[in-house]
Amino acid sequence: MDSFNSPTTKPLYRGTQIVWYILGVLEVLLAFRFVLKLLGANPGAGFTNFIYKVTYIFASPFLSVFKVSQVEGSIFEWTTLLAMLVYWLIAYGIIKLFLMGKTVSTPEAAVKLENQEK
């Protein structure tokens, strides 16, 4: 059975699409947080306050990893960049796990195993 006609191909594809989509939304929100902090945005403004509240849960595990770099109201939040990297790595790992469930032919598996031995 080739992998194009496998019954697992479409669900795996949809699963990877969902993971990349969720990561994309999260990365955009964290990027907004980073830029707003960097530009010294007013935290009392509706949009800024919304972004800070939504992203806090995702940024909070990293908030004490690095010292904050601050110059006259502008904050370079290294921790947000770290969060973006960590979440990207997690998504990449999940995608790799999904792809391990992909159907492969015996000859294809043999070639891949042989390449791993090198």
Automatic annotation (TrEMBL):
Keywords attached to this entry: Membrane, Transmembrane, Transmembrane helix
Transmembrane is among the record's keywords: yes
Residue spans crossing the bilayer: 18-38, 50-69, 75-95
Protein name in UniProt: YggT family protein
Organism from which the protein derives: Candidatus Nomurabacteria bacterium GW2011_GWF2_43_8
